[in-house]
Structures are given as C-alpha cells and as structure tokens.
Design goal:
By secondary structure, the protein is mainly beta. Helices cover 11% and strands 74% of the residues. Strands 1, 2, 3, 4, 5, 6, 7, 8, 9 and 10 form a ten-stranded antiparallel β-sheet that branches.
Length: 265
C-alpha cells in the first residue's frame, strides 16, 4: 500500500511539476489579424518629360528663335505619410487591404540660355526654365503575405493617384535695331494623374502591437495633357491666355521605412 502511494505521488508530482507543464504548453502564436495604423517615410525617384504644346503660334515662334519649349527631368525627394489597413491570417497566409497618404514629393528643375538673330539688326537673348513635381500620393491596395512567426513577407497592388505640376518661365530681351523690349513669360499647370501601384515588403512584429518594416513601391501614373494658364509681360503690354503642356512621368520608385500599431485581433 505504501509503495502504491509513493508511485502515485511520484507520477503525480512529475506530471504537474513546473518544468513538465512548461514543456507541454504550446508556444504563443503570433497572430497578424486585425486593424493597424502607422507612419512611413523614405525616398522616391522618377523621370519626367514636359513640353509646351499650345498656343501653337507662340510655340512656333519660340522654336524658331531657338528658345527651349520642353525639358527632361530626373525627379527625386523625400516622402512621408500615414497608412491604415486591416488584414486576416489563415494559417501562414495573410490577406488584407491598406490605404495610404504620402506627402512630400519628387521634383527637379532646369534652365537653359538661348540667343538668336543677327546683331545689331535684330536679336534675342534670354533664358528658359522648367520646374516639375509629383506629390501628394494616395493609394488603396490589396496585400497578400506569408507569415513565419514574427516575420511577414508580402506583395501588394492596387489604385494610385498623385498631383503632377509643371511650371515654366521665359525671360530675356528682344531688339530690332535700337528698339528693345524686355519680356517675362510664365506658364503653369497642376493636375492629378491616376494609375496603379505595385510592390512588396518585409515586416517584423516587435511586440503583439508594434510592427516595423520596409517596403518598395512602383507607382505608374501615366502621361496626360494639362490645361494651364500663361502670361507674357513686355514693355509694350501684358498678354495672357490658355496653355497646354504635355506631361509624361515615368514610374515613381520609392523605398519606405514603416512603423505600424496593431489594434486588436
């Protein structure tokens, strides 16, 4: 009887000892499901071609005088914004959707001097400049991820839109014999381009509520013709009218660091 009690005590104590209970307990599962919101910041770059198309008479005169009516730019700049999303985990697969607003922008400017005519009968000297920018990005994209404990690798794709602006200026002096006139022209346009975004990233769950990561995005906004306004100030008067510029941006590339806060399962 005493041996039976000792055996029962032995197996009971081992079965419920702290060491054995810890070994038998399942590991704490990392669940990526839930709402989340956060901030992101990084760097972007692109290329863009801009060309003044209208008014046709003004473009023809400028081309004839050798004044540049277009430019090719290498855009770059810092970007930052916020994002909010929701996702659900099934096994190792994580599906979700995310909306993002990114401020800042990628931009560039250029200038070029020109001179034409026959001195001193008639001549023209001046400088042509352009400034372009892509800013205020907005997107809504679906995400498909594969989780490995606290790591999540994902790809994304969806709708994107951004503001694209182009400005130009023309400054100089025109002379015919001894009659000379200074001139100052300017034109500008700003429109939203709609397109799509694709990319991917890698995230790590520091705690059950804090997620850090890095993400690459490829944003294609397409080209379009902008309607704008233009003015020309001279010594004999001021002229104004409508202009049209062809703006063709290449895809915008960006790399962002991310900090997200998970809001419950």
């Amino acid at each position: 009887m005493r041996k039976s009690l000792l055996a029962l005590c032995f197996f009971g104590c081992v079965g419920f000892s702290p060491v054995n209970a810890h070994a038998a307990a399942p590991g704490v599962a990392v669940d990526w499901s839930g709402l989340y919101a956060g901030l992101h910041a990084g760097y972007g770059w692109s290329n863009l071609d801009v060309e003044l198309r209208e008014p046709p008479a003004a473009v023809a005169i400028l081309d004839g005088l050798g004044a540049p009516t277009g430019a090719s730019h290498d855009l770059n700049g810092f970007l930052a914004g916020g994002h909010v999303g929701v996702q659900k985990q099934w096994g190792r697969w994580v599906l979700g959707v995310e909306a993002a607003l990114t401020l800042g922008g990628v931009r560039d400017s250029s200038s070029e001097s020109f001179s034409s005519g026959i001195f001193p009968i008639a001549f023209l000297n001046g400088e042509s400049s352009f400034r372009t920018e892509i800013s205020d990005f907005m997107s809504i994209a679906g995400r498909v991820g594969y989780a490995q404990d606290r790591w999540l690798a994902y790809v994304k794709g969806g709708f994107a839109t951004a503001s694209v602006s182009a400005r130009g200026a023309l400054d100089g002096e025109a002379c015919v014999f001894i009659l000379c006139s200074n001139f100052n022209g300017a034109f500008a346009s700003k429109e939203r381009h709609n397109g799509w975004v694709a990319g991917g990233g890698l995230e790590y769950m520091l705690t059950n509520n804090i997620i850090v990561g890095v993400e690459y995005s490829y944003t294609d906004l397409g080209g379009r013709t902008h309607a704008g306004t233009g003015t020309l100030d001279t010594d004999i008067g001021t002229f104004s009218g409508e202009t049209r510029l062809r703006v063709d941006p290449d895809a915008v590339h960006s790399v962002m660091g991310r900090l997200s806060f998970k809001i419950g399962p």
